[in-house]
Design a protein that fits this description.
Layout (H helix, E strand, L loop, with lengths): L2 H10 L33 H15 L15 E13 L2 E7 L5 E8 L6 E4 H7 L9 E3 L5 E3 L3 E8 L5 E9 L3 E4 L26 E3 L1 E3 L1 H7 E6 L7 E5 L2 E17 L3 H4 L17 H13 L1 E2 L5 E2 L16 H17 L1 H16 L20 E5 L8 E5 L27 H17 L35 E3 L2 E4 L4 E3 L13 H9 L9 H16 L10 H14 L6 E3 L9 E9 L3 E11 L5 E12 L8 H23 L4 E7 L2 H9 L6 H9 L4 E3 L7 H4 L7 H8 L11
Parallel strand pairs: 3-11, 4-8, 23-26, 26-27
Antiparallel strand pairs: 1-14, 2-3, 2-7, 4-11, 5-6, 7-8, 9-10, 12-13, 13-14, 15-16, 17-18, 19-20, 20-21, 21-22, 23-24, 24-25
């Protein structure tokens, strides 16, 4: 079936393009998106929608104005500029020193009319600079006055490395709009040929990170001035390179999108991630094929795998050479001051080259895509293996802010067995198997010291006594091997100043709770931010006093999580497990919690909270309480499947509980208008739902029953079930 025919059938049958059900697309509540482009349509219709978009664009390219309103999407504005003039301002690229001594390249604007230099909040965070308190109001930036967020000192360097200067800059949320306003094609102006431009990408529309004031302008300006023909920019020589200014002729079409949907996902109705058994996406299929084609085993036993690169990566990498060179020069200066460091570093790099891990790049074709890795040395005197460690910084951002590490993921090995003998055998097999591939397992930790006594000191995570309370980081949590328990560390800082929406989001985002163990607290944080969001305040405007008071109370409760202890052990995997899962909803949120009930080595029954998940009710559209109860039931069914995959135990009894008789009736009837796909999924699931009377463990979350003491919090971590299963 051709894409045109697909689109014609969908349109004539009045089918929703996103979920393929027969209802108006304006009323679709599905949050699933196209797997190819993340567009608001089904993956099957990707080509059809892309062709349709091209037709609509070509038919409307002769006009300018706002785009048609798209339901349930962020506001868009389309602009078409035909044969227009673009005012080219004096932008330049400049290397700025980070707090760790490295350099990153920022986009700067040279402004003769500014009395003080300015830098964006984003740039300060990327640089990791310490700021000083400085209250000032800056006028003339955008509309109205902007309040400064402190003062920083910045060390700047030419991208060509031949000029340095230091200045102070006020920190603002935003310095200026993207410059130029639209991207245009470079012209072959004869008078600009062979000039060392301060901004080689002067034609690319990018954010301004730094505004340099008139004092810097007078400091770097030089005598050289080159004028070209009409409609061509003027070149002025500076110590940082040649800067361009003037009018240029452009022919451009651009689309500006104000993307606010990511934050709204906090309170949209969503599902658990699809099962891992689902079909692979085109990108995942490409990775599988790439692995099969490029993996080979060397004579030494090691494995060699090609580096998987995303499609069209060459257009996304940007420029990284200047930053790598700048950091290398910084490294050379450090070597001059530390001869021992210099000798160790040179020895390491020479050995690296002799082993064939790297080679000299001769006759590099600059037209081909490349990423230059900055590198630096880290000395750890207390290291048991290598005192000097050379770090190849794959996280270094290029001019396009892309990183190589975005395409990779690596984690520690986590596992366990039911007996110490099984653990020893597993440990031995793992060490020998990976050693054959040239991979040495190190940094071992265990809740049983017997498993570590035969290991050498360089194989342990760090020398520690099992009698102490030292904890190890595991998946962002803290694991105490001596007590075999997980714990949290409160990441929220105590501040007495007024709270803005930006600060609120920043602090809430630090609460890392991947398994939902802190759901009674995290849902309060979500509700708090949802309330602030609904007021439509600006990001740096103080929230009302009522929200500030709620935040102070929540912050006080968050101090308890330092003492919040969760046992890791959930029982012997060879014995019978019971899963008791609860779901519930209120007019503000819906939630579910999954508990695993088993027996310990003494035969005593134990219950543990395995995972919980919460979701806020949507703001834009009022959803009835029964429908939210149904959302919770579907979320619970999908979460149970995830727990079953993790347990890898077929000897499991599953009990799903809800206090809503309406939901039980709907699951039985499988009919509720346009959302019957949810009920079909629930009715076809092997999970059986039952009715629970009284306070459920889902209600402990949705009703925000938060204990004031750690001892009372244990009632949320365990269940005490002694009743009879009642079929709904």
């Amino acid at each position: 079936m051709t894409p045109d025919l697909q689109m014609r059938i969908v349109t004539q049958s009045n089918i929703c393009k996103n979920c393929l059900f027969s209802h108006d697309g304006n009323e679709c509540t599905s949050t699933k998106r196209c797997k190819s482009c993340q567009g608001n349509h089904h993956t099957i219709l990707h080509e059809a929608c892309m062709q349709s978009s091209k037709h609509q664009f070509s038919s409307s390219s002769s006009t300018s104005g706002p785009s048609a309103k798209t339901p349930n999407k962020q506001p868009n504005a389309n602009h078409v500029a035909v044969d227009d003039e673009e005012l080219l301002l004096t932008t330049l690229s400049i290397n700025v020193r980070c707090s760790d001594g490295t350099y990153i390249t920022l986009r700067a604007l040279l402004d003769q009319g500014s009395q003080i230099s300015l830098i964006s909040e984003n740039a300060v965070q990327r640089l990791g600079l310490q700021r000083r308190r400085y209250n000032a109001s800056v006028s003339g930036i955008g509309s109205g006055a902007s309040q400064s967020k402190g003062l920083v000192s910045i060390d700047c360097q030419s991208i060509y490395g031949d000029y340095n200067f230091t200045t102070e800059a006020l920190v603002l949320s935003r310095v200026a709009s993207n410059l130029p306003s639209v991207q245009f094609k470079k012209q072959s102006w004869p008078h600009l040929q062979h000039l060392q431009l301060a901004d080689p990408e002067y034609n690319v529309s990018k954010p301004i990170d730094l505004l340099l004031d008139v004092s810097i302008y007078s400091q770097i300006i030089m005598d050289g001035l080159i004028k070209g023909p009409s409609q061509a920019p003027i070149a002025q020589q500076t110590a940082l390179g040649w800067i361009l200014s003037g009018n240029v002729r452009t022919f451009n079409c651009h689309i500006v999108t104000n993307n606010i949907s990511d934050l709204s996902k906090y309170w949209e109705i969503e599902d658990v991630e699809p099962s891992s058994s689902s079909s692979l996406t085109s990108e995942e299929q490409y990775c599988e094929e790439f692995y099969q084609q490029t993996t080979r085993r060397l004579d030494t036993g090691r494995y060699e795998v090609g580096i998987p690169m995303k499609p069209e990566y060459e257009n996304q990498l940007g420029s990284s050479k200047s930053k790598a060179i700048a950091q290398f020069k910084q490294l050379e200066r450090k070597m001059c001051n530390n001869l021992l460091f210099s000798e160790s570093y040179k020895s390491f790099m020479s050995e690296y080259q002799q082993l064939g891990h790297m080679c000299k790049a001769d006759n590099v074709d600059e037209s081909k895509p490349a990423f230059y890795l900055p590198h630096h040395g880290v000395i750890k005197l207390d290291s048991t293996t290598t005192k000097l460690r050379v770090v190849f910084n794959a996280s270094s951002k290029s001019s396009s802010a892309s990183t190589l590490r975005q395409s990779f993921y690596m984690d520690d090995l986590l596992g366990g067995t039911n007996t110490i003998n099984q653990a020893r055998e597993l440990q031995h097999q793992l060490i020998e198997m990976l050693k054959g591939a040239g991979m040495n397992l190190r940094k071992w930790s265990s809740n049983d010291p017997e498993l570590l006594k035969d290991l050498s000191s360089d194989q342990l995570n760090s020398p520690f006594d099992f009698k102490c309370s030292e904890s190890k980081k595991t998946l962002g949590l803290r694991w105490n091997p001596s007590t075999d328990t997980f714990s949290f560390q409160n990441p929220v800082q105590c501040r007495n100043q007024c709270v803005t929406k930006r600060q609120l989001l920043s602090e809430i985002s630090k609460l890392f709770d991947p398994l939902g163990w802190l759901s009674p607290l995290s849902i309060r944080a979500k509700l708090l931010f949802q309330n602030a969001w609904s007021l439509k305040l600006s990001w740096d405007e103080n929230v009302p006093q009522s929200i500030q008071d709620d935040w102070i109370h929540l912050r006080s409760d968050l101090n308890l999580i330092d003492q919040f202890i969760i046992p890791r052990y959930i029982g012997n995997t060879n014995q019978l497990y019971q899963i008791h899962a609860f779901c519930d909803a209120s007019d503000k949120a819906y939630a579910c919690a999954v508990y695993v009930v088993s027996k310990d080595h003494k035969g005593e029954c134990i219950s543990r909270l395995a995972v919980a998940k919460t979701k806020l009710a949507p703001l834009a559209k009022k959803v009835s309480l029964p429908r939210l109860e149904l959302c919770g039931a579907l979320l619970l069914a999908q979460l149970i499947k995830k727990v079953m995959e993790s347990l890898s135990n077929e000897n499991v009894e599953i009990y799903a509980w809800t206090d809503s008789m309406i939901v039980l009736g709907w699951i039985k009837e499988t009919s509720i208008g346009g959302n019957n796909s949810w009920l079909i999924e629930l009715s076809q699931s092997p999970i059986s739902f039952h009715h629970h009377v009284g306070i459920t463990y889902g209600q402990r979350i949705t009703r925000q029953i938060v204990p004031l003491g750690v001892s009372r919090h244990r009632s949320y971590l365990t269940i005490h079930y002694g009743g009879r299963v009642q079929n709904g």
